[in-house]
Inverse folding.
């Protein structure tokens, strides 16, 4: 059994299950269309209280599947100091592992190809690398340029 969690965004059944979970448990804060709470990008004393977007305008894709699993389960990233209060609820008593990963699969499936590629580079073994990554044209955020080029060179 692997201890690293992975959400399979290429499995339509998981995406469909995740869509229902997201609608019930996540959309009230993160938005029906994954757009986040109003003004979530504003840096003020309330910035940590507003749920960020999960679409390409947010930064969810800058985290590995394992990190996304952890913040959903425990309400905080492993790197968040215990003294810092988190306004992200912990779902460990509400959703099981499969349900958490299904919600992640739904979110990931909505990302444009460039984000899918960039995010998969953060997973062990590049898990979730889209099958058509080498063959189609896509754009990616400039911050990912170097790691994507490295991956392209290595997998040629
Ligand atoms: C009560 C409102 C609320 C609900 C409901 C909620 N979240 Fe959050 N979530 C937040 C807030 C606020 C943050 C920002 C926490 C921070 O930055 O410290 C957050 C952060 C996150 C992050 C980190 C994103 C990033 O880019 O850093 C993920 C992933 C996430 N939530 C997933 C989920 C999922 C999946 C669900 C449903 C199962 C969910 N959330 C339900 C409020 C909520």
């Amino acid at each position: 059994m692997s201890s690293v969690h992975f959400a399979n965004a290429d499995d339509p059944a998981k995406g469909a299950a995740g869509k229902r979970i997201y609608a019930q448990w996540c959309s009230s804060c993160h938005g029906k269309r994954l757009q986040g709470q109003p003004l979530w990008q504003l840096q003020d004393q309330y910035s940590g209280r507003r749920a960020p977007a999960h679409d390409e305008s947010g930064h969810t894709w800058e985290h590995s599947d394992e990190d996304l699993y952890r913040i959903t389960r425990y309400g905080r990233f492993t790197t968040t100091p215990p003294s810092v209060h988190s306004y992200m609820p912990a779902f460990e008593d509400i959703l099981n592992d499969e349900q958490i990963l299904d919600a992640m699969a739904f979110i990931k499936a909505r990302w444009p190809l460039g984000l899918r590629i960039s995010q998969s580079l953060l997973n062990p073994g590049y898990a979730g690398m889209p099958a058509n990554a080498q063959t189609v044209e896509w754009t990616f955020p400039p911050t990912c340029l170097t790691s994507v080029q490295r991956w392209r060179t290595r997998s040629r």
